[in-house]
Amino acid sequence: MTRKTHLVGSWPGDFGVHAMETALTKLAPHLLRMSDGETGDRSEWIRPTLEWLRANPDVERVAESKTSQDEFALFRVLDGHRFRPEHIELGYLRAFQQSYPAFQVLRERHRQPQISFQVGIPAPFDLAVIAFGANAARDDESLTQAFTRRTLDLVRQIRAEAGDDVIFQIETVIGLVSVARAPAAAQPAVAQRMASELLKLPAAAETGTRFGAHICLGDYHHKATSEAADARPLVLLANALTQSWPAGRPFDYIHVPFAAADEPPSFDEGWYAPLRELALPEGVRLVAGFIHEAVDVDRLADLLATVEGFAGREVDVAATCGLGRRPSPNEAWDAMEKAVALVHAPSRNGSRA
Fold it and tell me: Where would you tag: which of 142, 143, 215, 312 has the fewest CB atoms within 10 A of its CB?
């Protein structure tokens, strides 16, 4: 395997075409997929979707919720109504149609045919929990179902235009945070439960639809929602996802965080020891999210060797989350420069990656 890098979703740019040109200039030979930079309000992940619920005819705002650093409106379904998929504004199709033609031109210009177009899709369960609250999402499955049905409709429409040239990245914060916050004895069961929720989307997608996954501890305003005591929660969730992944839907990669937003990764080797239990199928690429603005590239190379040593395989390299919400664009360019250096770092057996 040749080591690559991965852009989780967002990075700085005035417009999508500007962001794509920048990323291709800096990283093109080292990418297998990329979004359009998710510029503008899309850099705030699910916030645009939740803000549009203020004008949804099926719901009403009941409070302004605050979870850690994440502040969003909290909603409930109006009496006598149901939460209808057709009234949910997600924006995935519109953004794809605006950017995909430019992506094709720029990809050809940079002579990088291996790069697929990446569409980030927040997990429907995450949307339901954050929009309606954890208790409501747990007690009323129709909330997650509505987000799932609307997401699947847009996935089908995008795939009808791009076919296998598009890969859908399922993104979850709720999944990993739930496992990380659970008592150690309960973490395996919580990981299985979270995986079952996350897998509902690919299981219902058309055969042949390509997916990747980004599991996250949160990075809103570059602050994490939670932390992990070691790599065990992400290993448990990654294993649960791959062990039950639906047949016929290619699972290309899983991106996992080894840092918590502005908090740098641990340099305690014991933190990474649970990676010995990681059981990804051979065809699923592991993307290690540990590139950080506070750590120089030499120390990151040492950490890469630690990760690959415990994982027993070469890994792709990335930052912990998207680069579009950093305090300065220079942090995004710094991460990209470090990624290029790490792609070429010596592998565990001393050869070049």
Answer: 312
